[in-house]
């Protein structure tokens, strides 16, 4: 059982290992006998196959390959002016969407019918960030906490030496070396945020990130929006030789896994207890570090260091229909037809009639008679049920317009 214990806790160990590039100077604090060596070896090997950007003097690796998480995939993006559609954005867009969903709870709740409430966050991005940045944060408490597993691993080694249990001592030492060297290798890479620079003369980059219950309206220059929809985090190694060290670290963890699994039964009972003690304390530290929520840390880096705290305004509308109308009112597009059809693909005759009226009204949304009784009425050939549904959709649009008028008041403050 002592050897098998070294295989457990892989996810927490990987999470702790990948935090090395976020906290400054933590790459010096990996010298402890960490559990989960097999899982770390597997993830390191996979990261070698991840997408990256390379040139003659450097090599980059996508750090999200180490996490194996669907949370690294971002939502669909639709550009309001250029018509560009990105079916699946990257990790920065996923972080941005999560931050907006969590920000200010429901925001301003717009009165109206409620079926499936949709949160709408309007993000004014300001100036575009530099095309390449090196964000990082620091935490003195995190650095001090790392001394606990380090001291435990070194202390158990010393006790094994006093007890003259060389099997246990050597196996703990192998774990210390594997973890410490790997942290140094990963930490030697620069944690870089990059995004493509837009072509000169590009239109405004306004667009929307959409999910089932949340819509984020991005407003800003093409470069500012690109930083979210096309940006990426990467670990940049100074040379191909440094990059290839990841493969050797993977091999080192695999050796740790095999030797600990096969040789720990040869250790004395005291040595096995010391071995398990070092793993247990390290596992608790890894679990604590991984529970700090790396997504939240990365969101802080993206919002605070990269985007410099964009201005957010949030509304909650009771139906998706109202939410879509609200978005189109804020965007003020010359021709909202395509975006309306993409966001609300319904094509029954009731919806077609509603869309026809709405497109006309959206082009004259500054008119105080928006969807007044004189502009909408009973439609010939509609049943009572169909007319009732149409009137409900009109009410949703009126609720959205009331929310839009409130937004204009907020914006002018």
Number of helices: 15
Side by side, the strands of the main sheet go 3-2-8-9-5-11-4
Distance between the termini: 66 Å
Q: Overall pLDDT, averaged?
A: 83
Number of strands: 11
Q: Which overall shape is indicated by the principal axes computed on the Cα atoms? A: elongated
How large, in whole angstroms, is the Cα Rg?
28 Å
Largest sheet: 7 strands, mixed
What share of residues are in beta strands? 5-15%
Order of helices and strands: HHHEEEHEEEHHHEEEHEHHHEHHHH
Structural class: alpha+beta
List the helices and strands and how they pair.
Elements: H1 2-5, H2 10-18, H3 37-47, E1 59-61, E2 76-79, E3 85-86, H4 91-102, E4 108-109, E5 118-124, E6 132-133, H5 140-145, H6 147-163, H7 166-187, E7 190-194, E8 207-210, E9 214-219, H8 222-229, E10 232-237, H9 240-263, H10 269-290, H11 294-306, E11 311-317, H12 320-331, H13 337-343, H14 349-362, H15 384-411
Parallel strand pairs: 4-11, 5-9
Antiparallel strand pairs: 1-10, 2-3, 2-8, 5-11, 6-7, 7-10, 8-9
Transmembrane segments: 141-163, 169-193, 269-289
Keywords: Membrane, Transmembrane, Transmembrane helix
């Amino acid at each position: 059982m002592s050897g098998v214990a070294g295989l457990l806790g892989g996810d927490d160990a990987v999470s702790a290992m990948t935090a090395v590039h976020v906290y400054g100077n933590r790459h010096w604090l990996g010298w402890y006998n960490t559990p989960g060596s097999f899982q770390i070896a597997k993830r390191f090997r996979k990261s070698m196959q991840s997408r990256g950007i390379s040139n003659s003097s450097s090599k980059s690796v996508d750090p999200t390959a180490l996490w194996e998480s669907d949370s690294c995939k971002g939502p669909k993006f639709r550009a309001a002016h250029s018509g560009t559609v990105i079916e699946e954005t990257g990790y920065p867009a996923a972080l941005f969407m999560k931050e907006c969903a969590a920000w200010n709870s429901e925001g301003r709740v717009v009165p109206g019918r409620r079926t499936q409430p949709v949160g709408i966050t309007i993000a004014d991005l300001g100036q575009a960030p530099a095309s390449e940045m090196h964000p990082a944060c620091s935490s003195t408490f995190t650095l001090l906490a790392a001394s606990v597993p380090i001291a435990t691993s070194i202390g158990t080694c010393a006790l094994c030496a006093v007890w003259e249990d060389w099997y246990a001592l050597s196996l703990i030492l192998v774990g210390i070396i594997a973890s410490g060297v790997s942290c140094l290798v990963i930490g030697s890479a620069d944690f870089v945020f990059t995004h493509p620079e837009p072509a000169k003369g590009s239109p405004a980059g306004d667009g929307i990130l959409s999910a089932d219950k949340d819509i984020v309206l991005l407003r800003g220059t093409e470069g500012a929006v690109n930083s979210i929809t096309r940006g990426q985090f990467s670990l940049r190694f100074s040379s191909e030789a440094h990059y290839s060290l990841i493969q050797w670290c993977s091999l080192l963890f695999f050796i740790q896994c095999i030797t600990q699994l096969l040789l720990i039964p040869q250790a004395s009972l005291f040595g096995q207890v010391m071995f398990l003690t070092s793993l247990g304390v390290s596992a608790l530290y890894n679990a604590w570090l991984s529970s700090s929520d790396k997504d939240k840390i990365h969101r802080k880096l993206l919002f605070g260091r990269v985007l410099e705290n964009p201005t957010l305004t949030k509304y909650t509308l009771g139906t998706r229909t109202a939410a879509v109308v609200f978005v189109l009112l804020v965007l003020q597009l010359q021709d909202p037809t395509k975006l309306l059809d993409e966001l609300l693909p319904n094509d029954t005759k009731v919806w077609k009639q509603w869309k026809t009226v709405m497109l006309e009204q959206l082009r004259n949304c500054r008119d105080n008679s928006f969807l007044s009784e004189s502009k909408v009425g009973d439609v010939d050939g509609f049943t009572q049920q169909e007319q009732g549904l149409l009137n409900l959709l009109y009410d949703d649009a009126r609720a959205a317009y009331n929310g839009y008028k409130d937004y204009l008041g907020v914006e002018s403050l």
